[in-house]
Design goal:
This protein is α+β, with helices and mostly antiparallel strands. The protein contains 20 helices and 15 strands. Strands 1, 2, 6, 7, 8, 11 and 12 form a 7-stranded mixed β-sheet that branches. Helix 1 packs across helix 2 (about 35-45), helix 7 runs antiparallel to helix 8 (about 115-130) and helix 10 packs antiparallel against helix 16.
């Protein structure tokens, strides 16, 4: 099919998918007000002729056809840098299609265990790429009692599992939670949520199916109401995206769409591969957001005439440190990239996990710094309707005045963005997402333990302590 226009993308969503929101089944999401903003946001990524971003969104495949760059497999540092720049300018409704980067990065490992599943990964990747489809990252299970394994739960369906196998395919049952943009994509790409043991073979399952497959239902929730004033909600009014609670009620999956069906030794490998690309995307967004925080803090301080106050300058310095640490970490992770056996380039695993941990562990304190400089107007500022109405507008223009060169409307817009990003609709969502997207802090700690060279660190400590001779490390490196 090739590249879709925004209109073709919207039309493609009229396919009979089963979608619910607020107790209502929505038969056509393209005409429902709740989906207006997220669909417009995702459709904009199909504007391939846009003068500023069009060229960034598309690339030529090895066959010479044009495709969305979300499907370009990075083969060198330049490709990786271009991908990062593309993701900076891409909605999350399209960015989640990066799930195929995770699958392609583990294709070699899958091939060693099940060549047919590896071929399925390649085939489905090309199918989505060549038809300009969007795909969701479907990973987190309901999990039930976290002290028990998947097969030990009161209800065996609390982790997605295979309930039947036949010559044509598998039948799966269960639910996946927190699936961003699930109702707005074409394919649901299911991955194992974690490693599985031999007695959990039915839970080691991965596949891709169309959203409108019989037995699939999506229950939606968003941080933002359907209609918001862009003056009062400068972020939420334009960037809301539904999270899907995706149910698989005895869903049939043909064998040629199956990536894993009982190969327990690969379950954790697939889960970790998705974590890497999710955390990379989260870090890209963190760099953007942290720079915004610095700019907002500086603006609100200047508007108040406090920009030279030593305490305020110290606080802004903290915000700058946070922003620069994230920016440099992302740059380091891409410059010190790693490569799969088939030549695919991906960000440095240790660097991405360390950076995502730093971002998440310090996010709430960073927001506190911004709130500290901003003051109570973050929450109590009147609405745009009050500014436009008389006599309330005249009172606001009189009493929100600070300096001659500061427009009251500009000051209000700055405060509204601070509130929306950190203390209201979008902000509440971001508080949780910063911590949990790509796995919570524990997930990053585990990956740092797995990827950090602890043996070298111990050896250097022993040399420094005099317990090993000073030539030991060089001798070991030469032997390697």
């Amino acid at each position: 099919m090739g590249l879709r226009t925004p209109q073709q993308y919207v039309e493609s969503l009229r396919d009979g998918r089963v979608t619910y929101w607020d107790g209502e089944r929505i038969d056509d999401i393209t005409t429902h007000p709740r989906f207006k903003v997220p669909i417009a946001l995702t459709a904009a990524d199909c504007e391939y002729d846009a003068p500023d971003l069009g060229a960034l969104r598309r690339y030529r495949t090895e066959e010479g056809d044009e495709a969305h760059r979300i499907y370009q497999i990075p083969m060198n540092e330049s490709d990786l840098a271009t991908r990062v720049e593309m993701l900076r300018n891409t909605s999350i409704g399209t960015a989640v299609s990066g799930v195929y980067m995770a699958l392609m990065s583990v294709k070699d490992d899958v091939a060693q265990v099940n060549p047919q599943c590896a071929a399925n990964i390649e085939r489905m990747y090309r199918h989505c790429r060549d038809n300009d489809l969007r795909a969701a990252e479907v990973i987190t299970d309901a999990k039930g009692d976290r002290k028990r394994r998947a097969h030990e739960q009161d209800d065996p369906d609390l982790y997605v599992r295979i309930v039947d196998r036949n010559k044509d395919g598998i039948v799966v049952r269960g639910a996946k939670l927190h699936i961003t943009a699930a109702s707005l994509v074409h394919e649901l790409v299911v991955m194992p949520t974690k490693g599985m043991r031999q007695d959990e073979k039915d839970y080691a399952v991965s596949f891709s199916i169309p959203v409108n497959t019989k037995g699939v239902s999506i229950i939606n929730r968003s941080f933002a109401p359907a209609e918001l004033n862009a003056f009062d909600y400068p972020a939420s009014a334009h960037h809301s995206m539904p999270e899907g609670f995706v149910v698989f009620d005895d869903v049939f999956v043909p064998w040629d769409r199956v990536f894993l069906a009982g190969e327990v030794q690969l379950a954790s490998r697939l889960a970790q591969s998705l974590g890497l690309w999710e955390r990379t995307g989260g870090l890209i967004e963190a760099v953007r957001m942290s720079e915004l925080f610095v700019g907002l803090a500086q603006l609100v301080s200047e508007h108040q005439g406090k920009d030279k106050d030593p305490t305020v300058m110290n606080t802004i310095a903290e915000l700058i440190t946070y922003a620069e640490m994230l920016r440099m970490s992302l740059d380091y992770a891409c410059r010190h990239f790693e490569r799969t056996p088939s030549g695919m380039v991906h960000p440095n695993i240790l660097a991405i996990n360390a950076a995502k941990y730093y971002y998440a562990a310090n996010y709430h304190q960073t927001v506190r710094h911004l709130h500290d400089v901003s003051g109570g107007l973050v929450l109590t500022l009147p609405l745009e309707s009050d500014l436009r109405h008389e006599p309330s507008g005249s009172y606001l223009r009189k009493y929100l005045h600070t300096k001659k060169d500061v427009e009251v409307e500009t000051r209000m817009r700055v405060y509204n963005l601070i509130r929306d990003l950190t203390a209201d609709a979008y902000g509440g969502w971001q508080f949780v997402v910063a911590l949990q997207a790509g796995g919570g802090l524990t997930a990053q700690r585990i990956m740092m333990h797995r990827t950090y060279d602890l043996a070298r660190a111990k050896e250097r400590a022993l040399i420094a302590a005099g317990a090993l001779p000073r030539g030991s490390e060089a001798t070991r490196k030469a032997a390697e």
